[in-house]
Amino acid sequence: MLKNHQETLEQEHQPEAIAVRLNQQPKTQNVSDAILGAIDGCVTTFAIVAGAIGAGFSASVALILGFANLFADGFSMAISNYEANKAQSEFIANVRKTEEEHIQKVPEGEKEEIRQIFQRKGFEGETLEKIVATITQNTSLWIDTMLMEEHGIQPQSPSPIKAALTTFTAFVLVGAVPLIPFLITDTSIYQQFISSAILASIMFFMIGMFKSIIFAKPIFISGLSTLLTGSAAAGLAFLTGYILRVQFGL
């Protein structure tokens, strides 16, 4: 297994393979948007259900509240993510415009910034001057370098629409799972609630496992961590509903 992995790595790092990979347009990742939507969808939907059951409401009320929250909160979250990514894109565009203006008006000053940036990385002498000359003869590369090195931001911003759609889709798909038992009308409300809790727990654990695969983290620990987070939120919602029911005699 280790030998095959080593061979794969060596093949991927052959000059031809590297050239092909670098010639491809970098793609923005929406993994974080999917995870955010999935976790929030499952947490908030099951929390609504838990709060409704804790308050003594019927299964139909829990189902209505759950689905109402599913689409309303999912849409709200998608819009928020869209606006956040749009603001980030506008910020990057504004910084890029500022750097372009500085290069036009004070090119020697901007060259000195490049020089000092790479000097701090350990380059000096003729090597340093060649780096400065290479970067500053290409305006696009020059600006991209300033964005990353001076401002600490990536030149390529994520698509706001893609981020919003990813968040909304993950929210709705995962958030709908805890509501499935309440569609089965020939079981008691407590059986429905227990089934919903089991499904929600499975979703939480699977989301954690997905994170561990993407970010190379321990599967069980990541799954358990997400499960505990979701369970805590649902438990708080159930307790709140129960206390209010007792307090107001619902």
TrEMBL record:
It is a multi-pass membrane protein. The keyword Transmembrane helix applies. Pfam families: VIT1. Keywords: Membrane, Transmembrane, Transmembrane helix. It is found in: Endomembrane system. Its main location: membrane. The chain crosses the membrane at residues 46-72, 163-183, 189-207, 219-244. This is VIT1/CCC1 transporter family protein. It comes from Thiomicrorhabdus lithotrophica.
